[in-house]
Amino acid sequence: MSDVMGPDLISDLPQSIIESILIQLPISDAVRTSILSSKWRYKWASITQLVFDDNCVPFSYDKEVFEKSIVKFITRVLFLHQGPIHKFQIKTTRLQSCPEIDQWILFLSRNDIKELVIGLGDVEFFRIPSSLFNCRKLVQLELARCEVDLPHSFKGFMCLRSLNLHQVLISPDAVESLISRCPLLESLSVTYSDNLDLTIRAPNLKYLNLEGEFKDICLDTPLLIEISFAMYMTDDIAEHFEQSSNCNFVEFLGSVPNLEKLVGLIYFTKYLSIGIDSVRLPIMYNNLENIELYQVNFEDTKEILVIIRLITSSPNLKQLLISGSSNIPVVVDTPDMGFWEKECLSDSTLNKLQIVKLSEMGGWINEIEFIKYLLGRSPVLETFSIFPCVFDMENNLKILIELVKCRRASARAEVVFLHE
Amino acid sequence: MAEETESTKTEPLKTAEEEFKKLEITEEEESELKLETSDHVTFMVEASIAMKFGAVQQYLEVSPAASASATAIPLHNVASRELILILEYYRMHDWVDAGERDLKEFDERFLKDLNYEELKELLLAANYLNVEKLFNFLTKSIANIIRNKDVEFVRTFFGIDNDYTPEEEAAYREENAWAGVKFV
What we know:
The complex is a heterodimer of chains A (420) and B (184).
Chain A: H1 15-22, H2 27-32, E1 49-53, H3 63-80, E2 87-92, H4 99-109, E3 115-120, E4 126-127, E5 140-147, E6 162-169, H5 172-180, E7 187-193, E8 197-201, E9 207-213, E10 216-220, E11 226-232, H6 235-243, H7 248-253, E12 261-266, H8 268-273, E13 290-293, H9 301-312, E14 319-323, H10 337-345, E15 355-361, H11 365-377, E16 383-388, H12 393-405, E17 414-417
Parallel strand pairs in A: 1-2, 2-3, 3-5, 4-5, 5-6, 6-7, 7-9, 8-10, 9-11, 11-12, 12-13, 13-14, 14-15, 15-16, 16-17
Chain B: H1 2-26, E1 32-36, E2 42-46, H2 47-50, H3 54-62, E3 73-74, H4 80-94, H5 100-112, H6 116-129, H7 132-146, H8 151-158, H9 166-175
Parallel strand pairs in B: 1-3
Antiparallel strand pairs in B: 1-2
């Protein structure tokens, strides 16, 4: 763009375009445009998205001064604002609970707010005022570092489609009833959570993201198409699993037939392996095309069984990404070859599998057997990449020697051995 | 020396355009839609691109026959000058082999080549056509000009006539000093 000044062409743009420009600016810059000219005096005041963070007021080392100035700024903006507010977002670690926040939320609840994002404080958790549950038009709600109690009168968020709870103190019962009272919910994320037992009932849920400590998770989500689950393990949970007689796989994945993508992190595969050897899977995943499992322990045949059950129940699987638990065997492991002989008996083929990526491979015999298993059963395989966990020449050579011996069902398959 | 670096910089773009022309020839079977701009110029546009225009989608929803027939879809508020730019932008962004860097360079050049009036006309056209990606790109670019700049710079850049009297302006600055909005 040339810098030559011409006639004023921007001031008379339609308000909707001006608003699209102003919402791309930090809110303090948007407010500042009121000084440009009389035409601009109130243009900012009808923007429908208000986003606040630590940078909306000048920085001050004095915590109290800073906090006061943020509160004053937001209150003033809400006071001067005219028209509907669709989105209100406040993310700051420098603001603790204060009565003004309750007033803002009450104000927003009367303004048919659709999208609300609250992430406050870092020491103290912010207690969500009950007025939030009167925001009946909410479509998207995101809470971080908050404490939530469901009021008895809460009827539900009838329009809510996306719910994101990060580090939120809420009882498992309350989470369950919150979720089940959002009939249109499509996307749910519960992270940094220690809700040990949870049953998620959401008839329209499509995307689920879980991260935290869980003991028993039960999904009643028939339309689910994507799961990402990072599972942490504590001694207490590990002990619980030792005594458990449930099959976690069936409880967790037994009623999600529409799944298209599954991502499991940390102890997820371990979690699914509890009770896996005692049952047959009651379901096929005809839409499942992408599986990613990280930190799989190849010493544990039950975890390998999880992978094999998953991939043989997914006739349309296209892409498989697995990472191991990043160490090379220090002693020569004596694998349970009986396991592989038994698993290799079934003549199932992976007819759609095109891309396989195995990373953090240490060279365990079970890993090699798994590679053989995949290469021998994937007729349309295109790329098969293997990333060793360390660049240990001797160990890598061992893997490579085994690798060249493998039969390949696909003549097109390109096998790549790389250091990441 | 400076010229040399300039030419190496633009090289990926040239190849991108060439590649695109090749694609056009090889993929003759791709269906096209006829669009007519406000200055009565007709364009044959790949359906895959034209269908990204909200206005075209809407038109076809009302009169689906237009997609097959030879009648042109009228774009009342877009002149050929703007449509050429919009197509250039979308063809580049639609081009499968364009890497992130190519697109960034393309975007920068695209913006640099626009004068202020063209930018405004293009913004209006993008708004009318309801082409989200380009519209967001343009509004973001304008926002970047305003961001962190002092009031006088923004006024000068956009030719905004300051109709406040010095007393009024001082008063509004004072009034807006609430909550520490700073005016440099």
